[in-house]
Design a protein that fits this description.
Helix content: under 10%
Number of strands: 16
Order of helices and strands: EEEEEEEEEEEEEEHEE
Largest sheet: 14 strands, mixed
Shape: globular
Oligomer: single chain
Amino acid sequence: LTYSSADFVEPGSGGAGVTWDFATLSTIGSNTFTYVTPASTGLAGTFPDATVAQDESGAYFFYRADAAGYKDVGFTLGGYTCVCSDPLLMLAYPMAFNGTFTDNMNCNVTDGTNTWTRTSSITGTADAHGNLVLPFGQVNNVLRVHSVQNMVDNQLDPPSTVNTDLYSWYRPGTHGPLFSISTMHAVYSGFPLNDSSATVIDASSIVGVDELVRHDTGVEAWPNPATDRVEVVYGLGGGHALT
């Protein structure tokens, strides 16, 4: 998946049948995220519960996708390794309008010499659905999920804290959010740091952009190829029937 950074914008209103118009977003550069099997990283033994790894030039972020949702199970980055005994549920499955989820995370982080704990809590709400207008066109029948995550890292004294307020727009058939807006407030050693940003998926990441912007129904089927069983996920706009 390829994403571009974009100017920060307000997330807009929640509710049913909302149209969010971000057609004039100014994008800045791009970043490609490559997903690989945990076994291919050589670290599957450290992250035995992971089903997928995000490769960022030798730094790996490990996730688990199962029937309950998409979970953060740890990472290796710049000499640091974080292994979560209690992973964080980042997105619950299935999610529908007004659906909610909550979860807690507990991890151990090491730099090879010292080890400390990192904890986090998250609440998520599918607070809106409707139509999302992006620079490459309008995508109908999207679901917006608003999540708030609070993290405490005990490496320093006092501990560091990071509070993230995130809005993400999803549609079945597209792996990852179409658009995200985040606001972060962090405190490191008593010093505050704030950041607001937005990211939009690059059209090159989407197979069949024309179909995406033309059809109200979002569909995804897996595994592909299948042998004796296939699962289908779909999303329909209000008032539509599935046949």
